[in-house]
């Protein structure tokens, strides 16, 4: 199997055709990079969204947690990831408290 090539200048991306909106990736993201948006055409009525692309720390937790192999994180050799900041931690906490939904 060949490794997936990251889109240029993109630390994390989602294959929405594979995502079943289980929100497991959102639950494990320590930097608050992901959240669930309302998506009426989805089976569960929502879809994962990358809400803070430039704050991805490259921890791979989302990719490892995804049961459907729908989310991917760039290789450390291909992308310079952000550092985990207090602002990112606070956003992550707020998203979790908002039931994994996009903050309004």
Measured as a percent range, the helix fraction is: 10-25%
Low-confidence stretches: none
Q: Termini distance?
A: 40 Å
Continuous helix count:
3
Oligomeric state of the chains in view? single chain
How would you state the average pLDDT, rounded?
92
Strand content: 15-25%
* DSSP E strands, number: 4
Topology as a string of helices (H) and strands (E): EHEEHEH
User: Rounded to an integer, what's the Rg over CA atoms?
Assistant: 13 Å
**Strand pairing plus helix content: what structural class?**
alpha+beta
Strand order of the biggest β-sheet: 1-4
List keywords for this structure.
single chain; 104 residues; alpha+beta; two-stranded antiparallel sheet; 21% helix; 15% strand; globular
Task: Give an account of the 3D structure.
The chain is α+β, with helices and mostly antiparallel strands. The protein contains 3 helices and 4 strands, in the order E-H-E-E-H-E-H. Strands 1-4 form a two-stranded antiparallel sheet. Strand 2 (34-38) and strand 3 (46-50) form a beta hairpin. The longest helix is centred in the C-terminal third of the chain and has 12 residues, at 86-97. The chain is globular and about 35 Å long.
Entry summary:
21% of the residues lie in helices and 15% in strands.
